[in-house]
Amino acid sequence: MKTTAQKWGNSLAIRVPKSVAMQVGLKAHDDLEIVVREGNVVLKPHLRRVCRLDDLVKRITSKNVHDEISTGDPAGREVWW
């Protein structure tokens, strides 16, 4: 597929055809990562990972778990068990 770079302020802009956007799940206002690879411009969707607590807890091991941290004596009417 072919497109043209156009001037936009001090930058260049390209339009991503709808068919291409749909193939990669790209929507308006999505973040993109721009990299140069072997002389080519590569646009990659910058996906934010959505982490679930269950998945994070499963990754806890005896090697990466930390000890308790002392926060000092009570400062008000809270109760420490």
From TrEMBL:
Coiled coil: none annotated. Residues 6-51 form the SpoVT-AbrB domain. It comes from the Bacteria. Gene3D superfamilies: 2.10.260.10. Signal peptide: none annotated. GO terms for molecular function: DNA binding; toxin sequestering activity. PANTHER family: ANTITOXIN CHPS-RELATED (PTHR40516:SF1). This is Transcriptional regulator/antitoxin, MazE. The lineage of its organism: Bacteria, Pseudomonadati, Nitrospirota, Nitrospiria, Nitrospirales.
